[in-house]
Amino acid sequence: MSHTTLETVARPSIRPTEPQRRSPMRGVRRIPGWVVVTLLLIAVVYPLFWLLTGSFKTQNEFLNNPTWALPEDWTNLDNYVEAFTTGNLGIYIKNSILATVPALALTIIFGVAAGFALEVMVWKGRGTVLLLFLAGIMVPGQMILLPLFTIYFQTGLTGTLWPLIITYTAIGLPLTVFMMATFFRAVPREIFEAATLDGASIYRQFWSIGFPMVKNAIFTVALVQFFFIWNDLLIALTFTNRDDLRTIQVGLLNFTGQFGQVQYGPTFAAVCVNVFGTLIIYLFLNQRVMKGMTAGAVKG
Fold this sequence. Notes:
Helix content: over 70%
Number of helices: 15
């Protein structure tokens, strides 16, 4: 009798699980969210699609067809050819690369080194120096353009790309130093203390320990600075006085004047090259940017 009772207790009761019925109100409550997401997608994606379709249209299509009409020939690349040949788009892209790459490299090297020195190394006055860099973030770039232009003119740097490289580096350093000091704050101090006890010099601690541990943060900061420099118009417009020195943003500004008010095709093609080129770079590097931002979000 007791054996039967034990079997009854030990055997679990198996009942077929009934599928959970979804409440119809649950789907109704999601409708406003879907509407908002759809509107946001349309607001973001449709201008890009309209820009892309416009780059394939001929002059006759721009003048006679509706604005929302699709191009008649999707393989028409004459606008892109004209943008690179007649519009000098290739020269503008080359100047942007020549100004962006050195300025970005100098900003990252000096900014990471300064962030390491301000946060990891212990020395008198580092708090004051960090406050000075913070004050540099608050200075509007428009205020320093006229003094810088005078200095560049007196030193003979006008007529070259050096004013752009120097100005981009100077403006990008305060934010880079502040962000890198914040990222270095999350690295456990015991790691550097152990390296010191093992005999590692400060340079080895920077290159072999500190730099690899914040590489995602460096990548994120570099990408932020890249988009700032690449998309700048005001500084490039101030310090470039010849057509062969114009960056792509200044070149796009002059595209309308070069082709007149009716040559929309090459202008759309040039804007497409700029917009989709930077968009592809961001989409390709998106995951690493997210890792860097997540690392910066958990700082204490």
